[in-house]
Amino acid sequence: xxPADNTENLIKKLRYKAGTEANDRILDNVMQALEKKEKQKxxxxxxxxxxxxxxxPITKIAAAAVIIIAVLIGLNQIIGSxxxxxxxxxxILTARTATFKAIVEVEGAPTQTFEGMFMxxxxxxxxxxxxxxxxxxxxxxxxxxxxxxxNKAMVVEMQNIPENEDQSQFNMFHxxxxxxxxxxxxxxxxxSFLGEREIDGLRTIGYHVKRPGADITVWADPQTKLPVQMxxxxxxxxxxxxxxxFNVELDETLFSLEIPSEYTVRTMQVDASKPTEKDLxxxxxxxxxxxxxxxxxxxxxxxxxxxxxxxRKKMKDKGQEPSEENILELQKTIxxxxxxxxxxxxxxxxxxWHYAGNGVHFGGADIxxxxxxxxxxxxxxxxxGDLQVEDVSPENLPK
Amino acid sequence: MLEDRLLLWRFKxxxxxxxxxxxxxxxxxxxxxxxxxxxxxxxxxxxxxxxFISFVQSxxxxxxxxxxxxxxxxxxxxxxxxxxxxKKRWQSAAISxxxxxxxxxxxxxxxxxxxxxxxxxxxxxxxxxYEQREAIVLRLHGEMRFRQIAELQSISIKTAQSRxxxxxxxxxxxxxxxxRK
Lengths: 399, 181
Known about the structure:
Structural class of chain A: alpha+beta
Number of strands of chain B: 1
Helix content of chain A: 25-40%
Structural class of chain B: mainly alpha
Strand order of the largest sheet of chain A: 8-9-10-11-12-2-3-4-5-6-7-13
Distance between the termini of chain B: 43 Å
Number of strands of chain A: 17
Oligomer: heterodimer
Radius of gyration of chain A: 27 Å
Radius of gyration of chain B: 17 Å
Strand content of chain B: under 5%
Number of helices of chain B: 9
């Protein structure tokens, strides 16, 4: 066996050396970040009122009076308080553009990383670490995925988009912005202060926004009041944005929905109309068809994962590798089913919905699996295991 | 140490040249540290770049308590861990990555390995549990004391020493052909 110090000496020799090109590139990028920071700072720096007060001749004569005034107008503001939620989120709400790095973590699936760009009104460009480019323009109702290495493109066209609905769940920057706006409008207790946390050596302060179906966390530099990390969790999906830079000059062509002529294009139409109870029934039906007669164990985004895992397992058991056609078919099925999920997600809080389908087999005529109260109704809609629906008074609801 | 404080002082007053000197002084060591932790040249460059970007962006509030190199090395370690956690690819990709790094002579990051013995060692490092590997890399490339490693890994000094020692023992065994994956 080798002596330990011999191994230690060998390890010390495991050295990596950056080539000039890489070295210059890193240094350039760092210097650019520094310049951006200086520009932002120049725009954001407020006069140091404290220093002004202390320099004033009045201070020497009547410091006590100054302090009293300071207390009256809010000492916290003068010496640098914890910035309020509204200050921290202002850049998010007012940004014309933003660039960021994104990490998408989905329970049970490999983590994905993106370079993201947002442009108003609701445009997004994301480049995956594998080189695929996803561009969405939700006003146009279109999402395109370009795969330059394979010269392939996938187009998702959203049809029947209702007015005043922006399908923002396809644009996480906008989704976060929307939730923050709603939280501010309702002035409820959905916003809480998280205190301090160090992110990459930088002291930050955080706020948590709790919304129906979504948890949002924003960590910001208390000095510049600029968000440095934002996170949105929706069911099993967590989307984290870091390295956020607001109001960067971005070329419109980056968000172009035109597909290069040499690409092979596949198009998928998605019904984006307001989902109804019928969509929920359809979701249960499709689920049972694909899941050997069972119904979902839960009705949130975890259900999608459960579905995909089961389909993969079924294929694996048959010794099949999913083909491109299989994947496309699965995507279509999930898109169709997701309308049922959206119906539930959109139900107002006072709809008092319940799901009891876990472990229930499709066809159970006497087994209530889902019930809710439609808006303005005194009775409940109860869906049974055979997907029959009945209006039921509150006193006759399942216990 | 004094020189670092002076450079920092100048940089905080807007002297970009001072930052360049800091960069030139430590980028190489940090890249070695990151590359040994991540075993991926592109990720190592990303990590070092991100650490320096965070550093320049927060330098006004930065107070140097220990050594600047120690601070930057800690940032690289934390960020490397994030990379590994996020990419969840340590176990599966480590070996193929190191082979790529070792053989890729024309790449921007060169692994300066002259001997076959060092190549074997580099591959053997990928077979260690991450925490043992991290303890070894921080000790030998980050020049950290066991107390600092213990703090970074949130463990006792004794455990940090054990991780280092077990890691070295395992490396020796692998190099002697006693352990197979």
